[in-house]
Amino acid sequence: MTVGYRENGKQICKFTYGSSRQEVAKKLAQLTHDVFENGYTTFAPGDSNLFYPLMEDWFFTFKEPVVSSVTSEKLRNYMKNHIKPELGTLEVHHIDMFRMQKFFNGLTKKGLCLETLKHIKQVLNQFYVQYVIKKGLVKENPLDDVKIRTMERDDSYKEKMALSPELRVEVMSKVADDPVLNPILTTLMLTGMRPGELVALRWRDVDLDESVISIKFASGREVEFDENGNIAKRYQVISNTKTVLSVRSFKVANSVVMCLNAWLAYQKEQQKKIGVDLTSGNCHVFCTKNGTMRNYYGLRSMLVRFLVRNNLEGHEISLYTFRHTFATILLEKRENPKIVSELMGHAKVLTTLTIYSHVISKSVYEDTAQTLDHVYMDILGGEEKADMPCDDTSVLFPSLT
């Protein structure tokens, strides 16, 4: 039976056999139904159609050239550790939505986080849309109806992202005597910078007279692979910020200016002792004692040692905790989410609203209810009743009392 045509117009035929004419007729009927449902193919039955070799072909031809080496490393790990073991030896046209749903159900049972599941689904979806369907190997995307777990309706994990008011006092009071870590954590918490942006910050991008900091670059990581696809080398680079909107200039609090002035004075004393330039415009603000740029892992090690020394390791505090605390403080004080989004360098205000929805709901709803009470009393009785307590039922609803 003709099941498709190659790009050169040559027919693609599939042969079927059986022990009786009835059995063969049944198989041909199924083939006819498949062609009717899925259309003609350009992929011959005898061609190599194993899922994983096809995905590798797509990945190294189309995907890897347009992503960073760090993203490539992450996607390679997803493919190697999760996709290949479960789907690698199957033929691509044998994987339907039921098989895909079972695949993601299994990943969920293994304890993979929601973000990882989303990334795996995204790369598989791109593989099907950009390659498998376009080549005519299948007609429909088996991921269209696949569901992955959603986060439980519990914001407790979000509350742990930022320091609580009590922890802010404890952490910042204990770090106050650390001449290096104190200005780093203070700057992170009162500017909302990403750690990568902090270590890439140079003195020429800091105007202490005008209280302005400009974020233009960030520290990133590059990965080199050998011919077998194994990691050969990792190294730190200065790269563009995470998104276009992450490039930003903003006025900082006086507390930050005072902190940076003290840090600048400290660095000037250090450079006199060691004879290394630490404070010129091209120097990194929070460079090492040798004048080189710090890296994320070095900062994290400093923080971990501080937490252990002060018995704070059980609070799940990371460098990003201070960035989250910055946003939380502003939203607790009713700052406009659009302004917070711009200060954070988020591409969309929706990102800010999604991440910090728990802060907005808890801090705003109570005030909103009180505002409505006062407005309603103004409508009913003007200034006289507006000064009365809002919980006085006889004032609001005399007919009911």
What is the 3D shape?
Answer: elongated
Note the beta-strand portion: 5-15%
Q: What is the multimeric organization of the chains shown?
A: single chain
Overall strand count: 7
- The rounded Rg comes to 30 Å
Count of spatially separate domains: 4
Derived from helix and strand composition plus strand pairing, the structural class reads: mainly alpha
Structure description:
The protein has 401 residues and is mainly α. The chain has four domains: 2-38, no CATH class; 51-132; 167-312, Intergrase catalytic core (hpI Integrase, Chain A, Orthogonal Bundle), CATH 1.10.443.10; 359-400, no CATH class. It has 16 helices and seven strands. The chain has a three-stranded antiparallel sheet, with no helix packed on it. Helix 8 (181-191) packs antiparallel against helix 10 (254-274), helix 12 packs antiparallel against helix 13 and helix 13 crosses helix 14 (349-355).
